[in-house]
Amino acid sequence: MSGDLPAPPRRVATAMLLAIRIVRVLLVVASVVLIFAATSLVLRGLPLPSWMKVSGPLTDGMMLTFASLGLLEVVALYCLLGLLGEVIATVRAGDPFQSRNADRVQAIGWWMVVIQGVDMAKTILALSGVSHEDMTSDKTISVTGLGAIVVVFILAWVFRIGARMREELDQVV
Fold first, then answer.
1. Phi, psi for 131 (deg, rounded to 5)
2. According to the model, what pLDDT value does residue 166 have?
């Protein structure tokens, strides 16, 4: 029951895989920037670039907390995209309903939980009086993000059932 995708969807899958690789490289760059920012705070010998300056009652500890949360978010997104790329590769190969993909989609859900938790922590810090344009966009907790997490876990369940049905069909044929 498995087989290659027709050419147009295969090209879309290939383009998605390329885009994921590019974004993952950019996330590595973002990680280096966040580590630089945190290091400059700790060592105090390296000045922060002007675009990283913040306003408001921001202590070094709070800035280090924001940098750490940002780094955690970048790492989570990097891992999530790696898993998504592996799922897309199996779709491109025409063989998506595997138990490994169910595990991957479930892991994507858990990485989304981490990202949502980091967003909530940043929002709470932002509401405590810290102001910075890039730390949080609207200082509210995203209900949409929570809904997306539920959808991803349901999708993992669907993948698991699909993989089980496929295994049963393979045993019959």
1. -125, 130
2. 87
